[in-house]
Amino acid sequence: MADFAGLSAAWELARRGIKVEVLERGAPGQEASWAGAGILSLLLPWNYPAPLQALTARSQRLYPDWIDAIRKSTAIDPEYRRTGMLVRPPYDLEKAATWLPGHTVTATPTALAGFGQGLWLPEVAQVRNPRLVQALLEGLRQLGVTIHSGIGTISLTTGANRVTAAVSDDRRWPADQFVVAASAWSANLLGQHTAGLPIRPIRGQMLLYRAEPGRLPCILYEAGQYLVPRADGHILVGSTLEDVGFDKTATAEARDRLHGFMARLLPDVAAASPIRHWAGLRPGAPGNIPIIARHPTLENLFVDSGHFRYGVTLAPASAELLADLMTGKAPEPTLRLFAWPDIIRAAPV
Predict the structure, then answer these.
(1) Peptide bond connecting 341 to the previous residue in cis, omega within 30 degrees of 0
(2) Per-residue pLDDT tens digits for 50-64
């Protein structure tokens, strides 16, 4: 299954002149990639280890040119915008102080005075992820990538410590190298070759409201919840973190909690009911650290998964790192945290 990390990896590999085929049991990019908020930042950056901060910073630097390259092959606007993010208390300022040097953090703008004081991060950008998925799919087609959708359950056949083919019913796809980027379903796809891959689904629920364009000028973050304004005035409110297995049910309890958050910050917008409520499953991993690595025993199999809520955020840099690994380029020392053995040692008993 191809989540946004998988589609991004296909894009990077194809741009390097490698022939790529994408296999998807359903529709590409329609799970967590579609369901998320599209915030291109860690929440909160200083709460994560330095290698993940470095990978995020690399992705943020790549994003403008990455978006431009995708847009050259499609008329779809992914709405990449630097709206900034206001981080409202509570937060650990002492912990944040280790991250603040070298990053743009300024006083809260006058236009945001009504939302209280906090940390203003003006460089934080966002994308409208459903549109970015559509644009990336069109870009892949323009690059000659074949996308096989709706093929059902996929398994791997192996021999002599290598994957020989991906299989679905009576269809078979041999290749020189394989990538598993199946979001929360990555361990399921590996089957008997899971090798302790500690990825599990974590449900997140979102609400969508209609408002006038400009009603909310930036992303607002507070204690794990956030509001994200779109260019046309729609505002997303998210999100929950629920360890409930492969259950994508949207619940009344989550709706009430998220609506309450909106009502406290934007009561005029919350006066109207949300126009949509949905749930998605994120690929959770220990420490929220993704796995971007070669399989420990199958030498031509790679995994690009476990990005948790940051699959879109980390997409350009994750794709670059994976493509380097697949083409024999050694990763930078700061990026070795994403290697498979580190994840296995960090996995809960």
Answers:
(1) no
(2) 889 999 999 999 999
**Torsion from C-alpha of 184, 185, 186, 191, nearest 10 degrees:** 140
The answer to whether 132 and 8 are in contact (CB under 8 A) is: no
Q: What are the structure tokens assigned to 176, written together?
A: 């020189």
Task: Give the helix ranges, DSSP H, for 72-125.
Answer: 93-96
Q: Which domains does the chain have, with CATH numbers?
A: 1-80+125-198+285-349 (3.50.50.60)
Is-contact 320 294, C-beta < 8 A? Answer: no
Beta strands in the chain (DSSP E): 21-23, 85-87, 119-121, 146-148, 155-159, 162-168, 171-174, 178-180, 200-209, 219-222, 225-229, 235-238, 276-284, 291-294, 301-305
Query: Taking every pair of C-alpha atoms in the chain, what is the biggest distance, in angstroms?
Result: 64
Nearby residues of 252 by Cβ (< 8 Å), 6 or more positions away: none
Residues in the chain: 349
| Pairing status of strand 291-294 against strand 301-305 | antiparallel
In this structure, are residues 335 and 321 in contact, taking their beta carbons and an 8 Å threshold? yes
The mean-pLDDT minimum among 70-74, 207-211, 231-235 falls in: 70-74
Q: Alpha-carbon distance 293 to 178, whole Å?
A: 12
For residue 86, what are the β-bridge partners? 120, 220
| Strand, coil or helix: 276 | strand
In a 13 Å sphere around the CA of 133, the CA atoms on its Cβ side amount to: 21
Determine the pLDDT at residue 74.
Answer: 86
pTM: 0.90
